[in-house]
Specification:
This protein is α+β, with helices and mostly antiparallel strands and 752 residues long. Helices cover 27% and strands 25% of the residues. The protein is globular.
């Protein structure tokens, strides 16, 4: 509490990224860079069918190929069950195991059915062609609404819809129904002067990380095993892999490599248990690396969605009622972000009467994975688009309309939380005052604003801070660094210790060298792990004061730490010269030993994040091409520990959201096969597609963090879908309710 009053020396500085030099020089080691003596190469055979029963698998010809040392199929995996938390979602281990390797059925194009380890990648690839799989091809379903129909092809005959009363007596593809509500929506709609109701559709989109999934696994003779991998959480990899293979946590050490992007897509496992099984069978280390095609066919995008939205409003601009019905594609196994979609849908606004119903639906697609604020961009697209239309209908400025209904301190969100200090109103006011909002528009240009929310998370986190004999400091963090978190940890440690950040080095610990920590996801690391670093650094300061008291032969209460040195707390203590950290560290051996701090916390109080975006587009009415010509992202970061990386997170989220809005989608043929599994045909934005993205950081400190931090990585992807679509709608004169806004779709709107 009281973060607003804290004056800092290092917090807010733009220091050089600790891992920057290694990355720009090419020395950094990523998932596929490790080479071990005798290492084998693994390749995975994937189903060519969207839905097929596996009648038999004959691997004998592959096993006979010279250079092939092992083949694994589902029969090599034990049956497992149970659930566990993983970030914002839960893992069903039975489903996870069947996603890693198909058992009774292949449930999507690209589903893994067998794997080979050979002395070279070319031999392993040849061996895949020798594996004979007899399939019984079954009817498939791709579209979420088609999958919900009673006569739809059934993926799982043991899947019964949860949270429905009475409990269904027949299986279906609807895994779960979710509902949140408050007030009386019928009464609220009855009080409305104007009501807008529309249905919005978004396509499944991939996270688009540059580095594909990669893992190196080694099972040694004593039963110990090791994995090096590209992952957003080495502890999650350890826990999932050991559960799937039935081994003890202590018998597997997972070391995180540098990571070439994740955005939520690397919070689960695909290759790791397969590579470890192959290593156990061969007695040699095994490397498995996905091709780009495999990434698209075999790893999870986010869900496609259908969202029906109905909002009622008085002519004065007050929302009287809001209702949302959302249907999310989970892919082949339950677990879409429908829950998060329901929770975030109306969180930006103080609405007395509201109801949200969500459905988690399986279909013959790759199992979805988290993608940056999972579930929130789809509902924001719907809600913000309707608010834009309502503002136009009643003749109110879109920002003023949102300010009139904005959530503020004391607002209770539909999912139950009562907001403390939040900065949503501040982002709206900053947007209205921003030069972008009043700048003139050119021909065929449109402008819109949209808002976004993410609750952020905390959770189990650890940190070690060790003082070396020469007075330098080492921080050990338990979380892979995706967005510059190493720099943030160094800055917070430097602030507590009162020393220059150049004196601090940071390393990412493996699962055997530091205590358990949750995933790098949900915008939790700078908040939660940062709290652990602060706690561990404070322990170090306490020890430094104790050592200074020993040297001066005074009570420890007579020592205070400031500016990187021990000082007498008052003139009554004595006339002592300050003792710097370096001087105390040099004497640590004779004063009790190494100075070290270790913190383990379960962080609570993650401050929710809010953003307001302004987007200008230009539409070529002859071709239907849409160009984003100006974009401004304004966001409450609580406190920007390293402003450069906060701005980078904001800009990166916008870039991904613009791609989602304009270009990106999974395209399937009539047999349920993915037609665009690569960056050539799956069109992600490149530098030439985007303007310079303006950012403005708002700082309304989170009272539950010592330096006021709120997570920033999720929120920036939430508003762009609506902002882009509403800006295009301004130009074409028709509400754009289906993404992506491809040229043919835009031309249809212009011509229609």
């Amino acid at each position: 509490m009281g973060a607003e009053q804290i004056e800092t020396k290092w917090i807010g500085k733009r220091i050089v990224r600790p891992d920057g030099v290694d990355k720009v020089t090419g020395r950094a080691n990523f998932g596929a860079d490790l080479r071990l003596p005798g290492m084998l190469e693994a390749k995975i055979l994937r189903s060519p069918h969207a839905h097929a029963r596996i009648k038999s698998i004959d691997t004998s010809k592959a096993e006979a190929l010279p250079g092939v040392l092992s083949v694994v199929t589902a029969k090599d995996f034990p049956e497992v069950s149970g659930m566990a938390d993983a970030g914002e979602a839960q893992v069903n281990f039975a489903d996870l195991s069947r996603n890693v390797m198909a058992r009774e059925k292949a449930l999507y194009d690209g589903h893994a059915v067998a794997a080979v380890a050979a002395t070279s990648a070319s031999i392993a690839t040849e061996a895949l062609s020798l594996i004979e799989v007899e399939y019984e091809v079954l009817p498939h379903v791709i579209d979420v609404e088609e999958a919900m129909k009673p006569d739809a092809p059934l993926l799982h005959d043991d899947l019964f819809t949860k949270n429905v009363d009475p409990k269904p007596d027949k299986p279906s593809n609807v895994a779960q129904r979710l509902e949140f509500g408050a007030g009386d929506i019928d009464k609220g709609f009855g009080e409305a002067d104007v009501i807008v109701e529309r249905t919005f559709r978004t396509a499944a989109t991939h996270q688009g990380y540059i580095e594909p999934h990669a893992a190196v696994a080694e099972w040694t003779e004593d039963g110990q095993s090791r994995i090096w991998c590209s992952s957003q959480g080495q502890f999650a990899v350890r826990d999932m892999t050991t559960t799937l293979l039935g081994i003890d946590h202590a018998n597997l050490k997972v070391t995180p490599a540098e990571i070439g992007g994740g955005f939520g897509g690397k919070t689960t496992i695909y290759l790791e248990p397969v590579a470890l099984l192959l290593s156990r069978k061969t007695g040699r280390p095994v490397r498995a690396v996905m091709s780009r095609e495999e990434v698209f066919r075999g790893s999870g995008p986010t869900s496609g969605s259908v969202v029906r939205t109905k909002i009622g409003m008085r002519n004065s601009g007050e929302i009287t009622a809001a209702e949302l019905g959302l249907k999310y594609e989970a892919g082949a196994f339950p677990g879409s972000p429908a829950m998060a979609g329901c929770m975030t849908a109306f969180a930006c606004y103080d609405i007395e009467n509201a109801k949200v119903v969500g459905y988690d639906v399986v279909s013959n697609r790759a199992k979805c994975a988290a993608y940056r604020a999972p579930g929130a961009p789809m509902t924001a697209f719907a809600v913000e688009s309707v608010l834009d239309e309502l503002a136009e209908k009643i003749g109110v400025d879109p920002i003023d309309l949102r300010l009139k209904n904005a959530a503020k301190e004391g607002t209770r969100a539909l999912y139950g939380a009562k907001f403390k200090q939040i900065g949503f109103e501040e982002t709206l006011k900053a947007a209205k005052d921003h030069p972008h909002y009043s700048a003139p528009l050119g021909p065929n240009q449109g402008r819109a604003i949209a808002c976004g929310f993410w609750f952020n998370i905390g959770g189990e986190s650890t940190a070690n801070v060790n003082v070396n004999m020469d007075g330098t400091v080492t921080v050990v963090s338990p979380n892979p660094d995706i967005g510059g978190s190493r720099a943030s940890m160094v800055l917070m440690a430097a602030e507590v210790l009162g020393i220059n950040p150049d004196r601090i080095r940071i390393t990412i610990g493996d699962t055997a060298s530091i205590g358990y920590s949750g995933l790098t996801g949900g915008s939790r690391v700078t908040f939660a792990v940062g709290m652990a670093v602060v706690d561990a650094s404070k322990q170090v300061v306490t020890q430094l004061c104790e050592r200074a008291a020993q040297i001066w032969e005074v009570d420890v209460e007579g020592v205070e730490w400031r500016d990187g040195a021990a000082h007498p707390a008052s003139s009554n203590v004595g006339d002592f010269d300050p003792l710097s950290l370096e001087k105390i560290a040099a004497q640590s051996a004779k004063l009790g030993g190494t100075i070290t701090g270790a913190a383990a916390i379960n962080a609570r109080g993650a401050g929710p994040g809010f953003a307001t975006h302004i987007c200008d587009v230009e539409v070529d009415k002859g071709t239907g091409r849409v160009d984003v010509v100006r974009y401004t992202a304004i966001q409450d970061a609580g406190r920007a520990i390293h402003p450069g990386y906060v701005e980078g997170q904001m800009q990166g989220g916008v870039a991904q959201g613009v791609g989602w809005a304009l270009n990106e989608e999974y395209i399937f043929d009539d047999k349920g096969r993915l037609e665009n599994p690569g960056f050539l045909d799956y069109r992600m934005p490149v530098t030439s597609d985007l303007p310079m993205i303006d950012t403005q950081i708002i700082e309304v400190p989170n009272p539950f963090h010592p330096y006021g931090v709120r997570g920033v990585g999720e929120v920036p992807i939430v508003p762009p879908l609506a902002a882009v679509a509403s800006a295009v709608s301004q130009v074409v004169g028709k509400r754009m309710d289906q993404l992506p806004l491809s040229p043919p779709r835009v031309l249809d709107a212009i011509d229609g």
